[in-house]
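Form P-L/3: holo structure prediction, ligand NDP.
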Amino acid sequence: MSGICGNVLVTGSNRGLGLELVRQLAESPSPPLQIFAGCRDPNGPRAQDLRELAQKHQNIIIIKLDTSSEASISEASKAIGPKLKDGCLNLLINNAGVNIPGALADTGEKEMVDVFVTNVVGPMLIAKEFLPYLQKAASQSVQHTGMSCRKSAVINVSTLLSSIEKCHETFTMAPMYPYRASKAALNMLTRCLAEDFKKDGILVMALHPGWVKTDMGGPQAPLLVVDSAKGMLKVISSLTEKDTGTLLDWEGKSIPW
Ligand code: NDP
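OUTPUT (holo model):
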């Protein structure tokens, strides 16, 4: 199904969209060689479902990775490096993210900083730390021309709520200052990385999963996690050079910045 091969890293993969992305990748008829499933507490109760999934699929490797900690990101990179087949990482999905209620009255310095650390600083540090493996994947991929996830790609999981142009339509139903501002910053990070990594042939884009029934999306969300993840993987597998530096949704539709 997915057409995603090689070696993949998904952050925040113990529940919600991250877990479903790992599940669908592992269950695909032509699964990736290795799926590194990042999770901040691999032995804790919140990783039970991920551990059970990993027991069924030998290509799932659970990695301790707290994306809000520079030390943890560095340790995860050191742990993954020697395990990577040929030292190549073909696809990095920066999925881990946090949200808090975030109306103006509830938002102080701590709320802003905490959300920024996970939603922006983490993906930036991870892209920097794993760049050598992404570069190796891009340079070693002789059979694939142009940019693609089969060669080397970074997907930053963003949101419709990051769109500055759409804010007048979406603000009233979701007045979340830290979350919106952090994901708009993630979009800029995406554009910067896309420009920076062009010379290496690494595709970088931002992807909105839809409004999805997860702990974050809540029970009233219209989209099932299984359908969102399916759509996301379809979009990811069809990305080409023209998609680097874009913001798309789970159906492949463009979202204005
Ligand atoms: P959930 O809250 O259901 O899951 C979030 C995941 O991120 C968990 O696995 C959580 O791990 C992990 N995580 C959070 N902080 C860290 C950290 N510091 N280090 C490692 N892992 C961390 O959210 P979703 O699955 O719904 O969201 C996934 C992504 O999709 C997010 O980036 C979110 O912003 C985005 N998104 C979601 C939408 C929705 O409707 N659901 C809509 C638009 C975007 P733990 O269990 O340890 O907390």
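COMMENT: The two ends are 30 Å apart (CA to CA).
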